[in-house]
Amino acid sequence: MSLEQGSIVEGVVTGITNFGAFVELPGGLTGLVHISEVAEVYVKDINEFLKVNDKVKVKVIAIDPKGKIGLSLKQANPSAKSARGTRKPKFEQSFEDKLARFLKDSDERLADLKRQTDAKRGGRGGPRF
After folding, report:
1. Which keywords are on file for this protein (predicted)?
2. What is the pLDDT of residues 100-112, one digit of tens each?
3. Structural Rg of the chain based on CA atoms
4. What is the rounded distance in angstroms from the CA atom of residue 38 to the CA atom of residue 36?
5. Cross-strand partners of 58
6. β pairing state of 55-63 and 8-17
7. Do 60 and 5 contact (CB within 8 A), yes or no?
8. Is 35 exposed, middle or buried (0-12, 13-18, 19+ CB in 10 A)?
9. Domains in the chain, start-ordered, CATH in brackets?
10. Which residues contact 24 (CB under 8 A, 6 or more apart)?
Protein backbone atom coordinates (compact mmCIF):
# COMPACT_ATOMS: atom_id res chain seq x y z
CA MET A 1 0.00 0.00 0.00
CA SER A 2 1.43 3.37 -0.95
CA LEU A 3 0.94 6.23 1.48
CA GLU A 4 0.17 9.73 0.38
CA GLN A 5 0.47 12.91 2.33
CA GLY A 6 -2.92 13.83 3.75
CA SER A 7 -4.32 10.29 3.85
CA ILE A 8 -5.83 8.91 7.05
CA VAL A 9 -4.92 5.33 7.97
CA GLU A 10 -5.13 3.00 10.94
CA GLY A 11 -2.04 1.73 12.69
CA VAL A 12 -0.76 0.14 15.87
CA VAL A 13 1.48 1.87 18.41
CA THR A 14 4.73 -0.12 18.54
CA GLY A 15 6.88 2.10 20.71
CA ILE A 16 6.73 5.17 22.93
CA THR A 17 9.53 7.64 23.58
CA ASN A 18 9.67 10.94 25.43
CA PHE A 19 9.32 12.80 22.11
CA GLY A 20 6.54 10.77 20.45
CA ALA A 21 5.15 7.39 19.49
CA PHE A 22 6.07 5.03 16.69
CA VAL A 23 3.11 3.63 14.77
CA GLU A 24 3.21 0.62 12.45
CA LEU A 25 1.12 1.34 9.37
CA PRO A 26 -0.41 -1.02 6.82
CA GLY A 27 2.25 -2.47 4.56
CA GLY A 28 4.78 -2.77 7.38
CA LEU A 29 5.84 0.88 7.28
CA THR A 30 6.53 2.75 10.51
CA GLY A 31 5.91 6.42 11.18
CA LEU A 32 6.34 8.80 14.09
CA VAL A 33 3.64 10.78 15.84
CA HIS A 34 5.53 13.67 17.42
CA ILE A 35 4.39 14.55 20.95
CA SER A 36 3.07 17.90 19.63
CA GLU A 37 0.74 16.01 17.26
CA VAL A 38 -0.83 13.72 19.88
CA ALA A 39 -3.55 16.03 21.23
CA GLU A 40 -4.93 19.55 21.04
CA VAL A 41 -3.90 20.11 24.66
CA TYR A 42 -0.35 20.30 26.02
CA VAL A 43 1.05 16.77 26.39
CA LYS A 44 3.61 16.50 29.16
CA ASP A 45 3.60 12.70 29.36
CA ILE A 46 2.65 10.80 26.21
CA ASN A 47 1.87 7.72 28.32
CA GLU A 48 -1.29 9.46 29.53
CA PHE A 49 -2.62 9.35 25.97
CA LEU A 50 -1.12 6.29 24.28
CA LYS A 51 -0.02 2.78 25.18
CA VAL A 52 1.90 0.18 23.17
CA ASN A 53 -0.43 -1.98 21.01
CA ASP A 54 -3.15 0.73 20.89
CA LYS A 55 -4.92 0.90 17.54
CA VAL A 56 -4.99 4.49 16.37
CA LYS A 57 -6.21 6.47 13.40
CA VAL A 58 -3.50 8.80 12.11
CA LYS A 59 -3.07 11.31 9.32
CA VAL A 60 0.07 11.25 7.19
CA ILE A 61 1.40 14.81 7.42
CA ALA A 62 4.86 14.38 5.90
CA ILE A 63 6.96 11.91 3.96
CA ASP A 64 10.55 13.01 3.51
CA PRO A 65 12.91 11.78 0.77
CA LYS A 66 14.69 9.47 3.24
CA GLY A 67 11.43 7.64 3.84
CA LYS A 68 10.61 9.05 7.29
CA ILE A 69 6.87 9.34 7.81
CA GLY A 70 5.41 12.08 9.99
CA LEU A 71 2.01 11.32 11.49
CA SER A 72 -0.63 13.22 13.45
CA LEU A 73 -3.31 11.96 15.79
CA LYS A 74 -4.92 15.33 16.40
CA GLN A 75 -5.34 16.07 12.68
CA ALA A 76 -6.87 12.65 12.06
CA ASN A 77 -9.47 13.27 14.78
CA PRO A 78 -10.22 16.99 14.55
CA SER A 79 -13.38 16.83 16.66
CA ALA A 80 -11.73 14.88 19.48
CA LYS A 81 -9.44 16.60 21.94
CA SER A 82 -7.11 13.60 22.04
CA ALA A 83 -6.84 9.94 21.21
CA ARG A 84 -8.13 8.91 24.64
CA GLY A 85 -9.68 12.10 25.86
CA THR A 86 -8.23 14.82 27.98
CA ARG A 87 -7.47 13.84 31.50
CA LYS A 88 -8.35 16.71 33.75
CA PRO A 89 -8.05 16.90 37.50
CA LYS A 90 -11.16 15.78 39.35
CA PHE A 91 -11.76 19.36 40.42
CA GLU A 92 -10.11 22.69 39.80
CA GLN A 93 -9.04 24.63 42.87
CA SER A 94 -9.87 28.29 43.05
CA PHE A 95 -7.16 30.88 43.52
CA GLU A 96 -8.23 31.42 47.13
CA ASP A 97 -7.93 27.68 47.88
CA LYS A 98 -4.47 27.55 46.32
CA LEU A 99 -3.38 30.65 48.27
CA ALA A 100 -4.71 29.23 51.55
CA ARG A 101 -2.84 25.97 50.97
CA PHE A 102 0.36 27.84 50.12
CA LEU A 103 0.13 29.96 53.28
CA LYS A 104 -0.52 26.87 55.43
CA ASP A 105 2.44 25.01 53.92
CA SER A 106 4.64 28.07 54.30
CA ASP A 107 3.71 28.48 57.98
CA GLU A 108 4.44 24.79 58.61
CA ARG A 109 7.85 25.07 56.95
CA LEU A 110 8.72 28.18 58.96
CA ALA A 111 7.68 26.47 62.22
CA ASP A 112 9.85 23.43 61.37
CA LEU A 113 12.80 25.66 60.56
CA LYS A 114 12.38 27.60 63.80
CA ARG A 115 12.23 24.36 65.82
CA GLN A 116 15.42 23.13 64.17
CA THR A 117 17.35 26.34 64.78
CA ASP A 118 16.11 26.60 68.39
CA ALA A 119 17.25 23.02 69.03
CA LYS A 120 20.74 23.87 67.75
CA ARG A 121 20.92 26.93 70.01
CA GLY A 122 19.81 24.97 73.03
CA GLY A 123 16.14 25.84 72.83
CA ARG A 124 14.19 28.43 74.71
CA GLY A 125 14.04 28.80 78.45
CA GLY A 126 17.23 26.88 79.04
CA PRO A 127 19.47 27.88 81.89
CA ARG A 128 22.02 30.54 81.11
CA PHE A 129 25.37 30.45 82.85
Report:
1. Ribonucleoprotein, Ribosomal protein
2. 889 999 999 999 8
3. 26
4. 6
5. 9
6. antiparallel
7. yes
8. buried
9. 8-72 (2.40.50.140), 89-121 (no CATH)
10. 11, 12, 14, 30
